[in-house]
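Morning!

This is the sequence you dropped in the shared folder:
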Amino acid sequence: MSKGKGGERLYAGLIRLTVPAGKAAPAPPVGPALGQKGLNLMDFCKSFNDKTKIYKDETPIPVTITAYSDRTFEYKTKTPSIQHMLKLASGVKKFAKQPGKEVVGEISVRAIYEMALIKKEDMLNVTLEGCVSQIIATAKAVGLKVVR
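The structure's back. Tokens below.
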């Protein structure tokens, strides 16, 4: 086992992936990314799938994996992207090709507030109001009209 001074693990790399909730498998993109660092694929897949079972199947979950030289790892999941949540909440299949010129759907301020409550845990140093403002800006940028 590779240890640094004082017995701490040595950092070997950072892996960022977006994996469907409950669907982590040794196939791409997970397998090649973790295999490159020599990490145990099945340990990650079982743990990730168990942790993300609270989400609807196929929800894309951003995950950051910290690899260590002793072939161990730690990972942190984030909440689904704002764009994914906007699609679910508004019911649109595709966002506008020309945002600002075309409106493809509507979303309520209440739905945006609920998204902000969820996304707030990922956004450090941002107030709830700031989070709401960012989601409103994103909604407008993808062609959604914000309604009361």
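Headline: The two ends are 58 Å apart (CA to CA).

More detail when I'm at my desk.
O.
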